[in-house]
Amino acid sequence: MGLFILRRVGVMILTALCLTFIVFSLTNLYPNLEKLAKTEGNFRMSDEAVTSWLTKNGHLDPLPIKFGQWIGVVPGWTNTDEDGKITGRCIERGADPAEAATYCGILQGHWGNSSVFKEPVADIIATRLGHTGFLMLCVMLVMVPGALIIGVLAGMREGSRTDRSLSTVSILSTATPEYVSGVILIALFASSAVGLKWFKGTATSAMESANFENFFLPVITIALYGMGYIARMTRASMTEVMTSQYIRTARLKGVSFPNIVLKHALRNALIAPFTVIMLQFPWLLNGVVIVETLFNYKGFGWTLVQAAGNNDIELLLAISVVSVVVVLLTQLISDIGYVFLNPRIRIS
After folding, report:
1. Would you give the end-to-end CA distance of the chain in angstroms?
2. Domains of the chain by residue range
3. Model confidence over 144-160: pLDDT tens digits?
């Protein structure tokens, strides 16, 4: 197990470097850099002024050099202007250049500053990720138990009326995108035009003090979409397990049906849904963009939209790193979970 984890961690690091390098290359294309220069300087800047600004701030260095500086394995750039003033990647505003560090990348905890929010990127990511993390926790607490109950009830007796009814509900919830169900829920339960203004709070206020009124609609909007997919996977897995030979043997021995489901079928039936459940974490982290924008909940997805729309390169890169790490970690956890759910699975 230890060797397996070490190998997977090595592959994860290599994959993360490759993916972040691709994102870094795309965000550092010249049109994006030109837009950044005009945003930081003046939109009426000439081409010569743009080139001068980019050169002065190290944006026109070779791409591998810039990527190494961003990671923190290559010394940061420095520049001396005509007045003898020294600026550089590792030199904070107003600080003494002689006391500046040589390396200042993400390995050293330097994530840069946001050109939109005018704050350190690390602080923005920590705050927004905390908001989305709380939203994800609430969604998982609603979605996973509900999906497993629906899937198990539908798969216990394949073809029954319960199975057909619950399967139809699962298909409808999965087939309805979040922006459709979100608008419908807002129109039905939060709009005064219909008359059912049950939820008077807004998701924006939920960042300070979450309660049932201001947090239920975004949670249920996301949970409904993911619940159907997990329920369908659980139902399919449960149906397959219930037709297994050891289940028939248990029935012939006179074991009660509830004991067959809970003690014999459920554990093996959860292997496939476990993977789907673990994949919900990266989906929730990046898939809440629509819901957070729709309900104006300023979390990780909302920040991604703001960074992309305003060409905030440093913030975009930080978001990409966090997303890649979350995806790779959830895949590693799901692989390890296989062994504990089914002892017959061995690591070669």
Report:
1. 10
2. 2-108, 122-341
3. 999 988 988 888 777 88
Put residue 311 in one of left, alpha, beta given phi > 0 → left and psi -120 to 50 → alpha.
Answer: left
Identity of residue 302: W
pLDDT tens per residue across span 246-287: 888 888 888 887 787 777 777 777 777 877 787 777 777 766
Tokens representing 235 are 């139902």
- Of residues 12, 50, 13, 45, the one with CA closest to residue 31: 50
| Mean pLDDT over each residue of the chain, to the nearest integer | 82
Q: How far apart are CA 286 and CA 141, in angstroms?
A: 18
Lowest mean pLDDT among 24-28, 89-93, 129-133, 148-152: 89-93
Crossing angle between the packed helical segments 271-287 and 121-156, to the nearest 10 degrees = 140
Q: Work out the angle between the directed axes of helices 121-156 and 212-242 (0-180°, nearest 10).
A: 50
Torsion of CA 87, 89, 95, 100, to 10 degrees: -110
Q: Which CATH class is domain 122-341?
A: mainly alpha
For residue 269, give the nearest of 232, 223, 225 by alpha carbon: 232
What DSSP assignment string belongs to 18-62?
HHHHHHHHHHTSHHHHHHHHHHHS-TT--HHHHHHHHHHTTTTS-
The single residue listed with the structure tokens 């850099």 is 33
Helix (H) or strand (E) holding 239: helix 212-242
Say which range, 114-123, 229-238, 245-254, has the weakest mean pLDDT.
Answer: 245-254
- H or E segment to which residue 75 belongs: none
